[in-house]
Amino acid sequence: MIAIASDHGGYALKQTLVEYLAARGVQAEDLGCGGEPVDYPDYAEKLCRAVLAGQYERGILVCGTGIGMSIAANKIHGIRAALCADCYSAEMARQHNDANVLCLGGRTLGSELAKKIVDTYLDTPFSHGEHHCQRIAKIKDLEE
Ligand code: RB5
Fold first, then answer.
1. What is the pLDDT of residues 46-71, one digit of tens each?
2. Which residue, judged by its Cα, is nearest atom 3 of ligand 1?
3. How many structural domains are present in the chain?
4. Which of 20, 41, 63, 113 has the largest count of CB atoms under 10 Å?
5. Residues with catalytic annotation?
6. How far does residue 127's CA lie from ligand 1's centre (Å)?
7. Half-sphere exposure in the Cβ direction for 35 (13 Å, CA)
8. Residue 132 belongs to a domain with what CATH number?
């Protein structure tokens, strides 16, 4: 099970992705917003805390550019949020960075590209390579 959330800037893309994920048979819970003006850090926090609590395997956050969501999400210890605008970055975000949150820009990405990025993010496993694990451990150390 994954979670998805957005602010008003990412709402339209979030709705498209909610439908897309359902059609793909991916269990995804929509944590809001409902399209009303909201503050993106509130939704980043809601989703990230739920991911860290183990309620969801991973999360997708959408705002206008994806920038605000990624800045906010990466403030939360244990979250590795990757802002992706292409499929290669989404693949590397999983393979090398074990990103547990994907951030997308609702006003910067076309919906078909966004769907492909989501597919790549969801379908790519972490490599568990020694060097990558070591680097992620160093990121954890930065949180101390
Ligand atoms: C909201 O207008 C917009 O600032 C927000 O969606 C996001 O792009 C921030 O990074």
1. 999 999 999 999 999 999 999 999 99
2. 64
3. 1
4. 63
5. 63, 96
6. 32
7. 4
8. 3.40.1400.10
